[in-house]
Amino acid sequence: MKEKTTVIVLGNCQTACIKRFLRINLKANLEFYEVPAIYTIVNDTERIARIANDLNSVDYIITQPLTDKFGPLALDVLRKKYPLKVIVFPVIYWNVYNLELFYLKDLNGQKITNSIVDYHDIVVLYAFVYGYTIDDLDIWFNDKDLFDNTLIKFIEETSLSELSSREKECDITASDIILSLKEKSFYTLNHPNNQVLNKVSEGILKKKYDFPIFENVKEECLSGTQFPTYKSITNYFHFSNENQNVILNNTQIKRKGLLEKYFDYYKNIDSQILIYNLEFHENSDNVIGHIIKRLKVYLSKKNS
User: Fold this and answer.
1) More confident site: 212 or 100
2) Which end of the chain is less crowded, N or C, counting CB atoms within 10 A of the terminal residue's CB?
């Protein structure tokens, strides 16, 4: 008889907190089959094959819904091969509180990975391309009318619909947890705080264990990168006033310092890349496209 339960957790950076929670609650009865955040090995077919071959010796496979590009680790494959072992939790993505953030792409449509930071702010990019200043950006950030309530409500409903759709193939949900919280519960688009992650982890554990009390992970797991929320959004959700500083790689800087970094970066790359990103989103029916259209309306009213 096995003395310990062996678990593998497959997914993005959110898996780190899931593992901490399981380790706290199962203590010595648990051991992990260690794998990195799964997106970092998506092109390493040999390693993926080795992991897949080892799954026979694992008691539980806790995974986000992986697509066919992960080959033998794709959710459909795992469900068929290990129907009693697999527990699925969603990719917890919620762009409502930082709806301005996006990934900058090159002229081939590929994400630029050598940037100053993973996330870019479409409002900042727009301001740079069209000759506005950092002082202008500070005014816009603190203007409760920048993003109107109709736009925020639309993006909230769209994000909820998308998350709920992703949850259909999952055993655990997150949308109900997010909606139940009265304060901001995300540091970035895909970095929820521990209030969300602990509840998701509790749901995972309850699938196999009947614990009357769960011990939560206290130290925040994904707080190393944080972006403040525009005033118009905090007003919409009635959030209390928050720190307007930014945290990058666990280092706090003033928001103005980040804006300066963005401007310096944009000065030193091909301007066609900046224009391409603006035009791509403006011509798309996505969140960033809606924000650009709203920004134009906002500025037109301010300048009239």
Assistant:
1) 100
2) N
